[in-house]
């Protein structure tokens, strides 16, 4: 899921359905695959507004002007996958090529690794941090942000509030200004979330992790991130094959964290 799609979706979720911003975002989402070919005048006509209103709206989305907005739309049109090497493949393509049975064998192997080979001491340390820190936030992009939302929901059962947002600009602002009393949980299969705006054109470098005073925990399959000075705790895993199983593994990782948390601190409803 690209940054542009995420920002437009955020507008439709945050603004009133009767607002002009909601209307423009809805029209743009309906034409998401043609945006890079639509002029500002044509977009204004589609939305029944003036060109100046469209210009103001794209600035609200975080773009300098409509030209930059169209450039991002063009970039979004390219297929967005995490490439570990040339053999990496997403779940859908793997099943189409190899079939369901072979995919399930690969997935089961990855699940076993997650439960039996992921460092238990790191998980135990993590749940202590989650319990003890005053402020805890979880972020990611695309599927990884879905994991952050799922983690927020899961921890609500333990009466532990986890802040998250799908708005990428609010994520960066939060990280940049986070204090020492904050624990940041970052879901990033590739680990690139720490260094780059991966869904923006040319993947510009990210500085917020150099500015933050928070403690940073990274969930990733990129073991090289263990050495990154911006990461305080790295919880990683391996894949049997190069299938991008992280959307599935994230949810099971959350369950493993919840199990460790409940074993250590109990379940509030049972007290």
From TrEMBL:
Pfam families the record matches: HTH_6
InterPro entries reported in the protein's UniProt record: Homeodomain-like_sf (IPR009057), HTH_RpiR (IPR000281), RpiR-like (IPR047640), SIS_dom_sf (IPR046348), WH-like_DNA-bd_sf (IPR036388)
Signal peptide region: none
GO biological process, one term: carbohydrate derivative metabolic process
Domain HTH rpiR-type span(s) in chain numbering: 2-80
Entry annotated with the keyword DNA-binding: yes
GO molecular function: carbohydrate derivative binding; DNA binding; DNA-binding transcription factor activity
Metal-binding recorded as keyword: no
Alphabetically ordered keywords of this record: DNA-binding
Protein name: DNA-binding transcriptional regulator HexR
Organism: [Ruminococcus] torques
């Amino acid at each position: 899921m690209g940054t542009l799609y995420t920002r437009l979706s955020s507008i439709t979720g945050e603004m009133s359905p009767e607002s002009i911003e909601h209307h423009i975002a809805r029209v743009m989402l309906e034409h998401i695959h043609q945006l890079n070919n639509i002029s500002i005048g044509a977009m204004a006509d589609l939305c029944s507004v003036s060109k100046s209103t469209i210009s103001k709206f794209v600035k609200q989305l975080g773009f300098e002007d409509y030209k930059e907005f169209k450039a991002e739309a063009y970039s979004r049109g390219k297929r967005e996958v995490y490439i570990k090497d040339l053999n990496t493949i997403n779940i859908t393509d793997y099943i189409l090529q190899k079939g369901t049975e072979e995919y399930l064998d690969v997935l089961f192997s990855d699940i076993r690794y997650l439960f039996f080979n992921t460092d238990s001491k790191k998980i135990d340390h993590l749940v202590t941090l989650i319990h003890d820190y005053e402020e805890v936030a979880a972020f990611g992009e695309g599927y990884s942000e879905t994991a952050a939302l799922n983690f927020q929901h899961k921890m609500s059962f333990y009466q532990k509030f986890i802040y998250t947002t799908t708005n990428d600009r609010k994520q960066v602002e939060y990280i940049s200004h986070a204090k020492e009393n904050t624990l940041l949980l970052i879901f990033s299969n590739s680990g690139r979330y720490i260094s780059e705006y991966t869904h923006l054109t040319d993947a510009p470098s990210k500085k917020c992790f150099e500015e933050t005073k928070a403690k940073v925990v990274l969930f990733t399959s990129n073991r090289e991130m263990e050495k990154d000075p911006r990461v305080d705790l790295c919880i990683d895993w391996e894949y049997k094959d190069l299938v991008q199983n992280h959307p599935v593994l994230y949810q099971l990782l959350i369950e493993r964290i919840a199990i460790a948390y409940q074993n250590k601190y109990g379940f509030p409803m049972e007290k």
